[in-house]
Amino acid sequence: GTYMRSLAHDLGQLLGCGANLKSLVRLRYGPFDLKNAVSPEQLEDAFHRGCWQNLIHPIDTVLASWPAVVVSQATEQAIKHGMPVNLPLECPVANRCRTYTEDGHFLGILRFKPEKGHWHPEKVFQRQGN
Fold this sequence. Notes:
alpha+beta, two-stranded antiparallel sheet, flat, 130 residues
């Protein structure tokens, strides 16, 4: 991405007059758009009304472009214990993938270690009560 503040500074240096940004608003990031943003006050109000879940995205939304794999219960347990696993998944460019349990729960992020030839748990998310 372009660092807009640095770009403004560099342009100012090039022009010999100095420059900075007075204001900068990110309109979109991945699947998120400012038009759909919720203020803290709106979220707090929704919490008090008991409908806050309608305003929150699942944690894996930002990872939607990454490859995903559903793992068996045995592999799920190995991942939860931090053990490396072999998966029938080609190594993606970023060396990472999303992992899901058989019942569709987002389990975590795995990183491929090419020198070892298997996937290592990088971040694992536990369900409450598990």
